[in-house]
Amino acid sequence: MSQTITSPSNSAATEAPPQQVVERMQAIVGAENVLTTLADRTVYECDGYTLAKTRPDVVVFPQSTEQIVAIVRACRELNLPFLPRGAGTSLAGGCVPVGGGVLIALARMKRILEINIRDRYAVVEPGVVNVWLTNALKPFGYHYAPDPSSQGACTIGGNVATNSGGPHTLKYGVTVNHILGVELVLPDGRVITCGGPVEDTPGYDLTGVIVGSEGTFGIVSKVWVRLTPNPQAYRTLLGVFDSIDDATNTISAIIGAGIIPAALEMLDRTMIRAVEAAFHFGFPLDAEAVVIMEVDGLEAGLQEEADRMEAIARAHHAREVRKASTEAERALLWKARKQAFGTIGRLGYPSYCTQDGVVPRTRLPEIMRFILTTAQKYHLGICNVFHAGDGNIHPILMFDERDPDQVQRVLAASHEILAECIRLGGSVTGEHGIGVEKIDFMPLMFTPDDLHYMVRLRSAFNPQNCCSPGKMLPTAGGCAEGHTVLQTKPARRAAV
Amino acid sequence: MSQTITSPSNSAATEAPPQQVVERMQAIVGAENVLTTLADRTVYECDGYTLAKTRPDVVVFPQSTEQIVAIVRACRELNLPFLPRGAGTSLAGGCVPVGGGVLIALARMKRILEINIRDRYAVVEPGVVNVWLTNALKPFGYHYAPDPSSQGACTIGGNVATNSGGPHTLKYGVTVNHILGVELVLPDGRVITCGGPVEDTPGYDLTGVIVGSEGTFGIVSKVWVRLTPNPQAYRTLLGVFDSIDDATNTISAIIGAGIIPAALEMLDRTMIRAVEAAFHFGFPLDAEAVVIMEVDGLEAGLQEEADRMEAIARAHHAREVRKASTEAERALLWKARKQAFGTIGRLGYPSYCTQDGVVPRTRLPEIMRFILTTAQKYHLGICNVFHAGDGNIHPILMFDERDPDQVQRVLAASHEILAECIRLGGSVTGEHGIGVEKIDFMPLMFTPDDLHYMVRLRSAFNPQNCCSPGKMLPTAGGCAEGHTVLQTKPARRAAV
After folding, report:
1. Residues B224 and B241 grouped into a single domain
2. Helices B65-78 and B19-29 sit at what angle, rounded to 10 degrees?
3. What is the mean pLDDT of each run of 10 residues along chain B (496 residues)?
4. Domain of residue B90, CATH code
5. A187 contacts A478 by C-beta, under 8 angstroms
């Protein structure tokens, strides 16, 4: 089997997986929890980043920590690489099984094990969908704060892997700020527990470094999350602008004024058109940008904050500032924002690539102009919907994946936009991770010594690099030696 | 020199350090920045935890990252252990030079390098005293949020090493929540930068794992910290209680009611007596406990929050609820809290040992009763002043260090209290770290597999364990092999 995987053409992945592997996995989880056919495995060849594809040799659905341990141990004996997968909503190829091997799909570990309102934590399995937890907490007046736009599909385990953000990250922080502890199955089959319900635990902050490690340390099998009381009240405004600069300057000015909004989200004209075509919210089709501005907290004082935001928007030439005067109107605004990605199909392109860069907030006008220029240069459709308050941009490059020239132009434009983010003092990912897509940027952001110590850190947990090889760090080694380079690159070229 | 250090009696440390070492260090930092006499080195034999003492062979004061690099490289060549020290306010022996060697005192790296209000960060050298930064920020209406009681003396570098808390941790979080990045000199002399002013950086969250690593990864040479806007207003109340249970139940009830106070600090009767004897604040000497309750934020709505806290205190039989009606009155209350430790001398004991445990907030009544019983059992004076809102207790055991029997009783009582914290679902340190004092508790809190991976993590940065040997983890090895056990234990026994 190890020869099959080392084959640079990954031809084996088109063949049936070796019977030995299938039988081992079926013995652990039962035949109904193992996928082996070509059609089934093709479903798992990529995630939301469709420009890198590698078929796993087998897909396994464990239902307990013990089963994950048994799978990992079997992989070790069989010298197979393995990696975890949540809902596959990653946008940077984090779920691509580089080097083939065993894809450990956690979607069937979906139980909420405990909800403890008094001590404000919950314990969940990694496959619990983000919004399920918030739904389960509704009767108690609590929620789970990180709310990615994909929260209706993405899993808490996946959120932990990529340290996901969301619209309310601006006030409430990203995933790492809400994870109290994790249970981790190490690549050697040992199980460790880091953190837990008590906030102050001694020892190294392993929880913090595991969150965002993109599966390169092991498989998270249980998660202790912090619960957040629902705000007493909200004020949600929609600023309508005739220029992108006015919109981004408004955002920078609101933060500069010392207001800490719960969210500051921006949609550009093309995005407004798509959302409007799908949902008919009544957004002004001729506006250059709209900004959703939300403050939350105690009712007392909240209107004053909202009034200040409105005044700032107007001072920056907002054409109009609409107010969500009911909970239904607020829900509608957020539906527009969160389902924006789902409406892109309306714009007439079969594929899109969502980029994820960060710039200092004050550089938003510059990067938005750069994105526009780059789109024109490469004759690409680009629209924008993003966490403006965090300086976390999401230009969406639209194309037809079947046209190699368009794919090439998307890759080139993406690269230029991300390089510009670095030049402006930002970074190449705000919340989607490095995955396989952005590995080449790591040496631009870190010194060789920085990267050397990241690899050493990974080796502390994952010495053979059999767990999630070819992810995050621009290094080969161990199980993935050879594949990292040989298999992601051909996949990209194949798409081209 | 390496023989000298391996000597179990540490006798060398009473002799003059080898000329070779002194000359190397003087060549790097100048003679005026090297301490070599017995008297000078004796000052650095311990920190706030006086029950473990080991004299360093030499104390060196670098003034730049380059000098730290040169010192570390020289130590490596000379096969000498080394460790960083801030102000020495650690209460768990974190600054004790286990195994002798070179103590790298960072107190002269005390420059605030940059204050950037717009992007809300500052860059400081590790020797900057915590309160200096907040003082420097006053004109801008900002502060550095973590405020240990020792903030007038402790350094930001030391805060990073132990992940310090403080009274306002309850609302604002501990040090790790306010550190954006660090520059770290590794034990091999390489320098890496983790994080920085941009919040979203890809790669592993090395900053998070370095904060709280107690110098076991390397020497932090520069720190990027987050700045926090000053609250618009405060309400500070003092609840006076005739029973400890009423006071702790009030605390639990305030949090349970969904209020997020800025601080909830408790002083018991003995502590009140000491504070009163020193400062004459007018605290009621016959009360069993007082609780400082503070809310902060926007003026609007704040009084309502304060009123709710007062009502909860009264519902739990507070005899009286005093209000700080002016900024001067508020400052006085905080002076009482923050200088409480300094007043313990009034109670007539020459030494005290401040313990640091954590329990779930709802278990506070139990642990307070246990502390009282344990004090009686061992005939020790014990007083309490602590971060009640966090469940972070600080029983202060008072004794005479010259009396071996008293020392023995203090150690036994400390051990029992901390073991009880674990039994109640808590931990043996909230903010002071493991240091040398609490190493023996680590196997009670972590499985062998957990500890195995902590050691592997340390080895990723500090493979020879020459940097801060004998700290945090119950393992010998490398530079410290032999000393870890041989030198801290005799030091304790010597004190006994």
Report:
1. no
2. 160
3. 32 72 97 96 92 94 98 96 96 92 97 92 98 97 95 96 92 92 97 84 89 97 96 95 95 88 94 90 91 92 94 97 92 89 88 90 92 95 91 92 93 95 91 90 91 94 95 70 32 26
4. 3.30.43.10
5. no
Report chain B residues whose CB lies below 8 A from the CB of A206: 209, 453-454, 457
Residue A103: both structure tokens together: 């894809």
**CA of A207, closest CA in chain B: separation in Å?**
9
How many separate helices (H) and strands (E) can be counted in chain B? Answer: 17, 20
| One domain for residues B200 and B116 | yes
Question: What is the distance in angstroms between the CA of the first residue and the CA of the last residue of chain A?
Answer: 29
- Of A311, A341, A371, the residue at which a domain comes to its end is A341
Task: Name A314's Cβ contacts closer than 8 Å, sequence gap at least 6.
Answer: A321
- How much is the pLDDT for A488? 29
Q: Quick one: A268 and A353 in the same domain?
A: no
Domain-embedded: residue B445: no
Residue showing tokens 């043996």 = B428
ipTM summary value = 0.81
Q: How would you classify the pairing of strands A351-354 and A395-399?
A: antiparallel
B23, part of any domain: yes
Q: What residues of chain B lie within 8 A of the CB of A458, using their CB?
A: 204
Q: Do A360 and B119 touch (CB under 8 A)?
A: yes
Same domain, A121 and A195: yes
CA distances from A125 to A64, A114, A143, A159 (A): 9, 10, 17, 12
* B459 contacts A461? CB cut-off 8 A: no
Strands (DSSP E) along B248-349, which ranges?
A: 263-268, 289-297, 320-323
B101 sits in which H/E element: none
- Of A426, A449, A440, the closest CA to residue A473 belongs to A440
pLDDT tens track for B418-454 = 999 999 989 998 888 899 999 999 998 899 999 999 9
Hey, are the CB atoms on A119 and B305 less than 8 Å from each other?
no
Cβ(A123)–Cβ(A80) below 8 Å: no
CA atoms within 13 A on the CB side of B492: 17
Instruction: Give the whole-angstrom CA distance, residue A493 versus residue A373.
Output: 26
Minimal Cβ distance to A256: which of B118, B361, B460: B118
Give Cβ neighbours of residue B289 (< 8 Å, ≥ 6 apart): B241, B243, B244, B246, B247, B266, B267, B268, B269, B272
Please give the span between the terminal C-alpha atoms of chain B, in angstroms, as a whole number: 29
Q: A493: which residues sit within 8 A by CB, 6+ positions away?
A: none
A114-138 core/surface letters (b: 16 or more CB in 10 A; e: else): ebeeebbbbbbbbbbbbbbbbebbe
| Tens digits of residue pLDDT in A251-272 | 989 988 888 899 999 999 999 9
Between vectors from CA B468 to CA B462 and to CA B471, what angle results, nearest 5°? 105
Q: Give the residue on A whose Cα is nearest the Cα of B258.
A: A229
| CATH code of the domain covering residue B244 | 3.30.70.2190
A411: which 2 tokens?
Answer: 């890759």
Burial class (CB in 10 A: 0-12, 13-18, 19+), A300: middle
The single residue listed with the structure tokens 């969406």 is: A396
- Concatenated DSSP letters for B385-405? EEBGGGTEE-EEEEE-TT-HH
- Whether B203 sits inside 8 A of A434 (CB atoms) is yes
Chain B residues with CB inside 8 Å of A203's CB? 434, 442, 445-446, 450, 454, 472-473
